[in-house]
């Protein structure tokens, strides 16, 4: 079998997605997500100009060799654009392998290690009162884990708090919108909201919080300590993670578990965090961390060091990525949690898929391959729309991490 074509499909059914569809001479096709929120066309061009020509004529079953060819062969290693492009190829090749074998991809990865993939939803609102109602919405639908984000008095907008509760979408304008941030106001607000949520919902519901890279290590240590009475499952992205050793300081001060990794692209972004046991959950995902093959390497390293998975699953990760993530999640020994933000009906229609939500779990498709596809005709009806993620400034105007 040979690869005869690879199409780079850019579509915007409510939000932008980049999808690679690999076609073979025997008619079997495979799909991979290549979406990099706010930088979509950079990956599309990388694929079209530099990757697709090299794929034509290759044997689609040589997944590892193709990965190494694209990674080592570029000379310029790592980075989100390169690694999302490689991820798309890798994912599509696993899809093809599954279809050829007649097996869902998770069976090729060693089979089921659990009955379902525990997912968490996003409860967010301006006030503690409204947050309680949002958490209740998820609990009523069977969720076992909920991420809680709250507005901060004195700040006009806060990360994770949006008008549309079901379909949160931060990339909202062609030129980035600007938000204002105050660490002091934030640290004074968050613990009291978790006190209300824990009190209302009892000890069994898993609660999470995303700090979105906004604190310094000692500020994060203070937050972690102040949240200890509410027994969070994790505090996410407490600090920007370029400096991996920065997490050591947080670790010395708090038992609140730490999750990080949604912006990571390779095992090299987290090897110190993992081997020194500075984190509890690694949140890398298929599309931004080199595909199924490389993500498994990250999770295997994590398994040796008591670190569990907690993959990113926001709406900018397409149903193709979600389908692939579920095959990984259900098969690895050290699965922790999977983020799950529902896509809109428009998005679901463009990406028909066989995974389903049941009783707080997502279940991967039993179809051969990934069990997801792209409806190319429908996708063509939604042309690309430039949309950027917001930026953040302190109250005095200094740029800050968003
Ligand atoms: O800001 O996916 O945990 N989830 C997140 C997301 C990210 C977006 C960036 O594209 O932090 O909301
Ligand atoms: Co996050």
Give an account of the 3D structure.
This protein has 402 residues and is of the alpha/beta class. The chain has two domains: 3-104, Enolase-like, N-terminal domain (Enolase-like, domain 1, 2-Layer Sandwich), CATH 3.30.390; 108-367, TIM Barrel. The chain contains 13 helices and 16 strands. Strands 4, 5, 7, 8, 9, 10, 11, 12, 13 and 14 form a ten-stranded mixed sheet that branches. A three-stranded antiparallel sheet has the order 1-2-3. It has a three-stranded mixed sheet with strand order 6-15-16. Strand 15 (391-394) and strand 16 (399-400) form a beta hairpin. The chain is globular, with a radius of gyration of 20 Å. 49% of the residues are buried. The model has no long low-confidence stretch (mean pLDDT 97). The structure holds (2S,3R,4R)-2,3,4,5-tetrahydroxy-N-oxo-pentanamide and cobalt (II) ion.
Layout of secondary structure:
Blueprint: E1 3-11, E2 17-24, E3 29-33, H1 40-55, H2 63-73, H3 80-101, H4 105-108, E4 117-125, H5 128-140, E5 145-150, E6 178-181, H6 183-201, E7 206-210, H7 217-227, E8 234-236, H8 246-251, E9 258-260, H9 271-275, E10 281-282, H10 291-304, E11 308-309, H11 319-331, E12 338-339, H12 345-350, E13 356-358, E14 361-363, H13 376-379, E15 391-394, E16 399-400
Parallel strand pairs: 4-5, 4-12, 5-7, 6-15, 7-8, 8-9, 9-10, 10-11
Antiparallel strand pairs: 1-2, 2-3, 4-14, 13-14, 15-16
The protein binds (2S,3R,4R)-2,3,4,5-tetrahydroxy-N-oxo-pentanamide (EZ4) and cobalt (II) ion (CO).
């Amino acid at each position: 079998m040979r690869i005869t074509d690879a199409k780079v499909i850019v579509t915007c059914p409510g939000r932008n997605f980049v999808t690679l569809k690999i076609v073979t001479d025997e008619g079997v096709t495979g799909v991979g997500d290549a979406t990099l929120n706010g930088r979509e066309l950079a990956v599309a061009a990388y694929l079209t100009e530099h990757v697709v020509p090299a794929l034509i004529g290759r044997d689609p079953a040589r997944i590892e060799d193709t990965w190494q060819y694209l990674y080592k062969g570029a000379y310029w290693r790592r980075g989100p654009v390169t690694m999302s492009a490689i991820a798309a190829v890798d994912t599509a090749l696993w899809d093809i392998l599954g279809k050829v074998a007649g097996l869902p991809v998770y069976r090729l990865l060693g089979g089921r290690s659990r009955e379902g993939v525990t997912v968490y939803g996003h409860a967010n609102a301006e006030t503690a009162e409204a947050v309680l109602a949002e958490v209740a919405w998820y609990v009523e639908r069977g969720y076992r884990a909920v991420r809680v984000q709250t507005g901060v008095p004195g700040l006009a907008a806060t990360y994770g708090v949006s008008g549309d509760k079901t379909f949160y979408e931060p990339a909202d304008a062609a030129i980035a919108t600007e938000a204002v941030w105050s660490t002091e106001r934030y640290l004074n607000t968050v613990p009291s909201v978790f006190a209300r949520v824990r009190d209302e919902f009892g000890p069994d519901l898993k609660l999470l919080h995303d700090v979105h890279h906004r604190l310094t290590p000692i500020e994060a240590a203070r937050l972690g300590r102040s949240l200890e009475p509410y027994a969070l499952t994790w505090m996410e992205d407490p600090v920007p993670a370029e400096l991996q050793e920065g997490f050591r300081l947080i670790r010395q001060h708090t038992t609140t578990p730490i999750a990080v990794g949604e912006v990571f692209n390779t095992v090299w972004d987290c090897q110190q965090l993992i081997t020194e046991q500075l984190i509890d959950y690694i949140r890398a995902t298929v599309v931004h961390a080199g595909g199924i093959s490389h993500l498994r390497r990250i999770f295997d390293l994590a398994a040796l060091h008591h670190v569990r998975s907690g993959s990113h699953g926001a709406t900018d990760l397409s149903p193709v990525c979600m389908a692939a993530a579920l095959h990984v999640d259900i098969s690895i020994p050290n699965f922790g949690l999977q983020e799950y933000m529902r896509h809109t009906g428009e998005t679901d229609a463009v990406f028909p898929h066989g995974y389903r939500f049941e009783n707080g779990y997502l279940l991967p498709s039993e179809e051969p391959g990934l069990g997801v596809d792209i409806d190319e005709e429908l996708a063509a009806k939604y042309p690309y729309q430039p949309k950027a993620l917001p930026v953040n400034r302190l109250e005095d105007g200094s740029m800050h991490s968003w």
